[in-house]
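dumping this here so i dont lose it
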């Protein structure tokens, strides 16, 4: 598959246990793209004031979710860390970053990677997002990280194509597909595939129902780092599905 960076929606951590279209997609995706030398994973669940890189040689699995079945917490997934990749990323990002020698991998990372590479043999280093900094900041981080891609490192943004949990939990079972989510994700897909980078960076003003799809931005911000790190600024929507008709599980590959 001709992609250099990825953005995937991780959804509920129950995806690792329950059969869903997104789960089936991720199980297949790992085989389609093969095993990279290492992954730099930009996670919507690691929020910091300044960009922070995890340096652990053996990052712990963080169970940062509550109220789920015991099987989810008992699951083990222990890929090696990628401290050399994190150190190189730190050089590329410059002095205004932090490094955390004890950072683990949250469920936005391990739920996705455990489906893509179940043997836990792909090294990973996590990178945080800055929830108040916006799309352009995260795009610029990606641009500075582009040399990693040229060295065979996969930059993997993990978040959500839409993330209005209030709407999601209020919806009755078997509710019809939310047309606002369809319009928003359709606009995003068209902009990505046309390479309309400036429109994407201004999605908050231009995309239909943007504030409804993302009341807060943190779950979409990893997409912009993946976009910035790609060579061409163009991408492909690799997967589209809706959990309960409202939570979009889209995935994008960028070239």
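and the seq i came up w/
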């Amino acid at each position: 598959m001709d992609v250099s960076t990825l953005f995937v929606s991780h959804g509920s951590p129950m995806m690792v246990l329950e059969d869903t279209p997104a789960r089936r997609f991720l199980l297949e995706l790992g085989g389609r793209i093969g095993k990279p030398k290492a992954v730099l994973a930009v996670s919507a669940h690691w929020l910091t004031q300044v960009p922070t890189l995890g340096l652990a040689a053996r990052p712990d699995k963080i169970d940062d979710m509550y109220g789920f079945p015991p099987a989810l917490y008992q699951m083990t997934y222990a890929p090696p860390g990628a401290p050399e990749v994190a150190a190189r990323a730190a050089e590329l990002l410059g002095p205004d970053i932090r490094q955390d020698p004890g950072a683990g991998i949250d469920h936005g990372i391990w739920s996705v990677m455990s489906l893509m590479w179940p043997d836990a043999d792909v090294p990973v280093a996590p990178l945080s997002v800055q929830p108040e900094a916006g799309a352009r900041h995260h795009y610029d981080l990606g641009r500075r990280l582009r040399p990693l891609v040229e060295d065979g490192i996969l930059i993997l943004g993990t978040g959500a194509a839409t993330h209005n949990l209030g709407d999601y939990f209020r919806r009755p079972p078997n509710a019809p597909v939310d047309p606002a989510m369809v319009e928003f994700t359709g606009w995003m897909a068209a902009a990505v595939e046309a390479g309309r980078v400036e429109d994407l960076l201004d999605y908050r003003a231009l995309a239909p129902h943007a504030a409804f799809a993302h009341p807060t931005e943190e779950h979409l911000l990893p997409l912009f780092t993946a976009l910035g790190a790609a060579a061409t600024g163009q991408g492909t929507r690799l997967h589209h599905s809706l959990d309960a008709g409202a939570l979009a599980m889209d995935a994008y590959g960028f070239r």
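The mean pLDDT is 94.
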